[in-house]
Task: inverse folding
């Protein structure tokens, strides 16, 4: 599916098969009691019942190869925001209110200055999302972690938890043909596809005219947008929310995780930031592959009844200007209509 991505070292086909193999084993776990897991196959977060009517939402994610950009640029104060964002943006997709994040920092060498800078990013992300970081872990793994350059190697991941009423879970089951698809703008690449982006743009100090004075490092390190507060405002409103999707790796195809019975006509996509045009040109990446690897300017989607679209856009645009309707849910199951994906 992703020829340029595979050449850069990431084979999405292999990844999918590996996940299927792993899940195939994990789903056979016998905890010795009735399962408390709420069935949400393929969704962005998991939910377990912890009390009558109350669910605990959980997810885990990391920053990926964006840490290599941070290492090469010697800039460590923003990727903590990405780490928080990648988790809380997933968690809110099931209708949960994120409460806390636990970080895991693996390092080649324990460097107090680097750790402090990473901590500043984690703090900024936590405050933007309205969550706490009550604990975490730092591991020194010089035999596993090698930096770019050494010895500044690190990996940053986290797990997030939140709560959701079981009768308020946004599972995607209510998504129906005719619903409005709303897009919230991204800040750029966010935290997916960085292996391909780095191959296309290897000179981090370059300031291409397409970036209007910014360097490649500036563009690639732009933090992932945190959508939690706006989405919670929408969930607490009178607008029925049928589906929520964090647009990460696989781009708009993330929408298909919500409901296998519907499709999506993305007839009016959000503007595409210039960084994506630069990656496509320099990396010789076809348009269809760009749209399958990157968010292409849309970092999050909300699906609501068409009659409630204006009210939903008004709520979401307070925190994310440029939010607007980008398409419609269709009855063409499993298919996304978009000129670049034809």
Result:
């Amino acid at each position: 599916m992703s020829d340029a991505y595979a050449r850069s070292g990431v084979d999405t086909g292999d990844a999918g098969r590996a996940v299927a193999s792993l899940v195939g084993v994990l789903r056979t776990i016998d905890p010795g009691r009735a399962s408390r897991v709420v069935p949400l196959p393929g969704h962005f977060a998991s939910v377990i019942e912890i009390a009558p009517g109350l669910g605990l939402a959980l997810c885990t994610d990391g920053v990926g190869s964006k840490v290599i950009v941070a290492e090469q640029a010697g800039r460590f104060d923003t990727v903590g925001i990405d780490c928080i964002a990648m988790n809380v943006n997933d968690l809110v997709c099931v209708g949960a209110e994120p409460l806390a994040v636990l970080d895991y920092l693996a390092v080649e060498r324990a460097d107090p200055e680097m750790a402090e800078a990473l901590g500043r990013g984690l703090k900024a992300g936590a405050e933007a999302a309205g969550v706490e970081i009550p604990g975490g872990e730092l591991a020194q793994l010089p035999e596993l972690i090698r930096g770019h350059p050494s010895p500044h190697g690190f990996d940053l991941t986290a797990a997030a938890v939140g709560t959701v009423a079981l009768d308020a879970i946004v599972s995607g089951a209510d998504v129906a043909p005719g619903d409005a698809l709303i897009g919230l703008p991204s800040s750029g690449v966010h935290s997916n596809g960085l292996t391909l982006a780095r191959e296309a743009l290897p000179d981090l100090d370059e300031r291409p005219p397409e970036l209007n004075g910014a360097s490649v490092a500036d563009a690639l390190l732009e933090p992932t947008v945190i959508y939690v507060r706006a989405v919670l405002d929408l969930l607490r409103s009178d607008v029925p929310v049928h589906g929520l999707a964090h647009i990460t790796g696989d781009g708009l195809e993330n929408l298909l995780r919500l409901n296998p019975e519907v499709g999506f006509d993305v007839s009016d996509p959000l503007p595409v930031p210039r960084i994506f045009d630069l990656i496509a040109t320099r990396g010789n990446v076809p348009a269809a592959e760009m749209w399958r690897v990157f968010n292409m300017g849309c970092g999050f989607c909300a699906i609501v009844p068409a009659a409630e679209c204006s009210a939903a856009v008004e709520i979401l645009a307070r925190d994310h200007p440029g939010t607007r309707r980008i398409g419609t849910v269709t009855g063409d199951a499993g298919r996304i209509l978009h000129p670049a994906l034809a």
Notes: The chain is about 30% helix and 25% strand. The mean pLDDT is 95. The chain has two domains: 36-168, 180-341. The domain at 180-341 is CATH 3.90.650.10 (Phosphoribosyl-aminoimidazole Synthetase; Chain A, domain 2).
